[in-house]
TrEMBL record:
It comes from the Bacteria. It comes from Polymorphospora rubra. This is Uncharacterized protein.
Length: 143
């Protein structure tokens, strides 16, 4: 019935997946292993076109690719903040942060907190933490 139950046949264009393809893959991530994706696939999908889907996946505690989606949200936020919102709209990030604070669990609330900290203190940006999954793996809140 839902995306979760249907089979995933793969991406028509893995460099530019559709939101539907991304969601289908996220519930069956072993169908196309991350190692087989194009280099820096996380950076490719962490853009405005897919951020809504990534946010939904990161909010879903039952999504098998949740950590990947959260990792992409960290990339998205850092890219927006570090470019003074030339890369992504500030309003969109602010709405996602507020929604995560209202309805998210600990990993999502931590993401929202860390986004607010980076906004206030851009010197807290460390590439490993924001773009290579360090904050996702550690669950750390920036101070």
């Amino acid at each position: 019935m839902g995306v979760e139950q249907s089979g995933f046949a793969g991406f028509a264009n893995p460099v530019d997946p559709s939101p539907t393809e991304l969601r289908a893959w996220a519930y069956q991530p072993d169908s196309v292993p991350l190692q087989s994706m194009p280099q820096d696939w996380d950076l490719l999908v962490a853009g405005d076109r897919l951020v809504g889907s990534l946010f939904e996946l990161a909010m879903d505690r039952n999504c098998p690719a949740r950590r990947f989606a959260l990792h992409c949200l960290y990339i998205y936020a850092a890219d927006g903040i570090r470019t003074n919102f030339r890369a992504h709209p500030k309003r969109r990030l602010r709405k996602l942060v507020e929604q995560a604070e209202r309805a998210g669990d600990e990993p999502m609330v931590n993401w929202a907190h860390n986004c607010r900290m980076l906004l206030a203190k851009p010197h807290l940006f460390v590439y490993h933490d924001w773009c290579e999954g360090g904050l996702v793996r550690s669950g750390r809140r920036l101070a």
